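Hi Prof. W.,

I finally got the Acyl carrier protein prediction working! I wasn't sure whether to trim anything, so I left the full sequence exactly as given:
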Amino acid sequence: MTMERLAQIVNRVVSSPRAPEVRESSRFVEDLGFSSVNAIMLIALIEQEFEIDLEQHMTQLMQIQTVGGAADYISSVAADAK
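And this is what came out:
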């Protein structure tokens, strides 16, 4: 479920008619064309959608390169927050 919700958020951030399909293996920079501004927007939307605070996780988040990796990390953070 996390992956589907994250894919929807990523699509909102990319919001380009030529945007590739978001998959677990999609790399944020290489495949989806993310910039640092996109990353900041994505983190803000993830915090809002999943009702979690990612401020203390920024170092780890910036090392994640794929959508699937981000989904796994978000699931872990959300489980710890409960």
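The domain at 2-10+23-81 is CATH 1.10.1200.10 (Non-ribosomal Peptide Synthetase Peptidyl Carrier Protein; Chain A). Does that look reasonable to you?

Thanks,
D.
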